[in-house]
């Protein structure tokens, strides 16, 4: 089978507002839906299998997932492996990717609220707002195509990111609060098998892309953090080989081996207990700028100051995503408590 050379980074320069067929063979067709958004549609769709969305680059400086998507797309086009599920690949923020920055005007991964307030509409204007609409339209088109025969077809969404800071668990996932218990266990199984080390269960609805697809399309969605963000060319993708192989296995097989029982001892599960919203410009933390995600904070410890007042924690906890530089009204920190999975539940 003849292959088709494809360079994701070069193709992101293409300004495209309509669907274009880039390549086809007897097994599947490869489309560009718009700039940075691609679909691979099997010639014969098995409506008993889930369709898959793989998104990356919503933050332009989180490079490892973007490089992984290039590897996966080229592997398909070279015929190295044969996808049997419909796939939507999304490179979220092309302008930010080329400017090597997190975003241009506004955090793209805060623009997926099901219903946005008037204040949010006023604040979030610019390139990312337009881009979020393009992404939503592409997802709607993809879901309409793949679910046209079987309305109960399950949608799976992996939104791939990197963390701003290093982590005690470098590879971890964040799950939307709307997922049911059985859905969470299904994701736990996949993540444990893919060498993901920890999971955070969110406590409320948030305007992220994975939460959006979980709510609107009942998708089995997860935000997956693949190490710390570094510049292009500095990623060691061998550290992501296990994760990459399990994704490929999922896309090319009707079944994948899933871990059960004591294998879950390797997966640390956390629940969000509190979040800190930035309400004043003077917010600052009482710990080093390079503190790692999942660092422990003892009960009564001074966390920082806001509005001239001290912030103390009421119980032993763990912190993730501390960022005092976010805009006022956005989340500046999450506090976590551990949850120890009931391994017997994995046998059901």
UniProtKB/TrEMBL annotation:
Q: Which cofactor does it need?
A: Zn(2+)
Looking at the record, the residues that make up the AstE/AspA barrel-sandwich hybrid domain are 266-337
Keyword annotations of the record:
Hydrolase, Metal-binding, Zinc
Recorded GO molecular functions are: hydrolase activity, acting on carbon-nitrogen (but not peptide) bonds, in linear amides; hydrolase activity, acting on ester bonds; metal ion binding
> What is an example of a Pfam family matching this protein?
AstE_AspA_hybrid
Q: Where is the Succinylglutamate desuccinylase/Aspartoacylase catalytic domain?
A: 50-250
Spell out the coiled coil positions from the record: none
Q: Which InterPro entries match?
A: AspA/AstE_fam, AstE_AspA_cat, Aste_AspA_hybrid_dom
What the entry lists under NCBIfam families is as follows: PRK05324.1 (NF003706)
List the PANTHER family: ASPARTOACYLASE (PTHR15162), SUCCINYLGLUTAMATE DESUCCINYLASE (PTHR15162:SF7)
**Protein name from the UniProt record:** Succinylglutamate desuccinylase
Annotated organism of origin: Saccharobesus litoralis
């Amino acid at each position: 089978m003849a292959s088709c050379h494809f360079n994701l980074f070069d193709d992101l320069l293409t300004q495209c507002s309509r669907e274009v067929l880039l390549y086809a063979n007897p097994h599947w067709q490869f489309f560009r839906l718009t700039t940075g958004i691609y679909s691979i549609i099997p010639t014969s769709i098995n409506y008993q299998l889930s369709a898959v969305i793989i998104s990356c680059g919503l933050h332009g400086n989180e490079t490892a997932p973007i490089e992984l998507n290039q590897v996966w797309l080229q592997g398909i086009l070279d015929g190295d492996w044969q996808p049997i599920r419909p796939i939507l690949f999304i490179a979220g923020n092309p302008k930010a990717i080329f400017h090597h920055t997190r975003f241009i005007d506004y955090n793209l991964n805060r623009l997926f609220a099901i219903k946005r307030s008037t204040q949010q509409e006023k604040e979030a204007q610019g390139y990312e707002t337009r881009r979020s609409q393009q992404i939503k339209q592409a997802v709607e088109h993809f879901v309409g195509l793949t679910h046209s025969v079987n309305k109960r077809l399950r949608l799976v969404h992996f939104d791939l990111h990197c963390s701003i800071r290093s982590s005690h668990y470098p590879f971890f996932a964040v799950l939307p609060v709307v997922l049911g218990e059985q859905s969470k266990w299904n994701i736990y199984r996949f993540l444990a098998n893919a060498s993901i080390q920890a999971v955070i269960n969110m406590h409320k609805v948030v305007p992220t892309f994975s939460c959006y697809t979980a709510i609107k399309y009942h998708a089995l969605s997860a935000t997956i953090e693949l190490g710390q963000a570094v510049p292009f060319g500095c990623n060691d993708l061998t550290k992501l080989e296990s994760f990459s192989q399990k994704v490929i296995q999922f896309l090319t097989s009707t079944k994948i081996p899933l871990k059960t029982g004591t294998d879950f001892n390797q997966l640390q599960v956390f629940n969000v207990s509190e979040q800190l919203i930035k309400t004043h410009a003077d917010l600052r933390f009482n710990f080093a700028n390079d503190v790692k995600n999942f660092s422990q904070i003892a009960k009564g410890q001074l966390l920082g100051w806001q509005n001239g007042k001290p912030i103390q924690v009421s119980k032993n906890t763990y912190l993730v995503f501390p960022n005092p530089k976010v805009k006022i009204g956005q989340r500046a920190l999450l506090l976590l408590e551990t949850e120890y999975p009931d391994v017997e539940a994995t046998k059901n």
